[in-house]
Amino acid sequence: MIEFTRNGVESAVRELLTEDDPETMHRAWLDSNVVSAFTESVYYPYTSLKYHTLLVAALLDNYRDGHEFADLRLVVDDADEIVPHRTVYAGEEFALRIDVDARGLPSARLGSRPWRSWASAWNRLEAHPLETAHDKYDMVLDANLRRIGAWSTALQYIEDFREVFDE
């Protein structure tokens, strides 16, 4: 557990930024609760630096492999399936990644070009990872995710919601 003091936060962020192994660094960002406390900008108070960084890394990794944005998908993986540099959310029940290869898993195209469209992608998923028919908290989470526009906001919302309601 990170101590939320100035020295504790500085030390935790330094560790995240100075890790040598890219896969270890990716996993550290997925697991970090420190970077979840920061927004992308003071002008966007509900965004998340953590998820903005993970989304940029996923896009960059896909672009480096020669993939076009129009081919990318939001893919729902099992919770234990972490794809280095492409997984953008990892929870206890499911993981989400940006990739061209859905491997037959539930997924949705991101669209023809980058835009702020989390709700659009979430609504187009072929199957949802939430148990909305049996769990009132999943139903509330799903309903709110269908309205959020910004990707980093939505991913941070999932993390925060699960932290509060899954205990």
Describe the protein's architecture and organization.
With 167 residues, the protein is an alpha+beta fold. The protein is built from six helices and four strands, in the order αααββββααα. The chain has a four-stranded antiparallel sheet with strand order 2-3-1-4. α3 crosses α6. The longest helix is centred in the middle third of the chain and has 16 residues. The two termini are 17 Å apart.
Give the low-confidence spans: none
Would you tell me the overall average pLDDT? 89
Span from first to last CA?
Answer: 17 Å
Helix content: 40-55%
Biggest pleated-sheet summary? 4 strands, antiparallel
* Beta-strand residue percentage: 5-15%
| Strand line-up of the largest beta sheet | 2-3-1-4
Give the gist of this structure.
This protein has 167 residues and is α+β, with helices and mostly antiparallel strands. It has helices spanning 6-18, 22-31, 49-64, 118-124, 136-145, 151-165; strands spanning 73-78, 87-90, 94-99, 107-109. α3 (49-64) crosses α6.
What descriptive keywords fit this protein?
4-stranded antiparallel β-sheet, 6 helices, alpha+beta, globular, 11% strand, 167 residues, single chain
Give the topology.
Layout: H1 6-18, H2 22-31, H3 49-64, E1 73-78, E2 87-90, E3 94-99, E4 107-109, H4 118-124, H5 136-145, H6 151-165
Antiparallel strand pairs: 1-3, 1-4, 2-3
Helix pairs in contact: 3-6
